[in-house]
Amino acid sequence: MLVHAGICDSGMWDAQWGALADGRRLIRFDMRGFGRSPVPSAAYSHARDLIAVMDAAGISEAAIVGASMGGRVALEAALAAPARVSALVLVGSGLPGHEWSAPVREYWEAEEAAIERGDLAAAPGARAATIPDAAHLPSMERPELFDRLVTGFLSRPA
Length: 158
Fold this sequence. Notes:
Layout: E1 2-3, H1 14-21, H2 46-56, E2 62-67, H3 69-80, E3 85-91, H4 102-117, H5 138-141, H6 143-155
Parallel strand pairs: 1-2, 2-3
Helix pairs in contact: 1-6, 2-3
């Protein structure tokens, strides 16, 4: 599942489509009010919409790649339906206003300390990557390197 940034629509993933679709079922959609999706007239949730798209496509579990606001939507979907998310790739994302539990904060502190030490083995499942000469949307700024990093992440066992 590819979830676009708040300044784009699903077309932002055009450069990734070929590389990421290789051997995978790949879905992207325009969140409400973006691209070909109309502006909503009633309350809605992008995260619930994401899960609804998965339901409509018959997808019980998926890796979700989200950029900026799309990453926040991916995080919200993972929090709402953790069994539906096999992996998250978050690009310049955040989750404003969420109060994380003490055990989650402690895990992150240990994980960050391990990453700072360069000890990724002590941070199970964590993979950090920096894309040189890219700012907020590396999928658009350095698509070849972004594709290589994401496909490598999705190809590794959890």
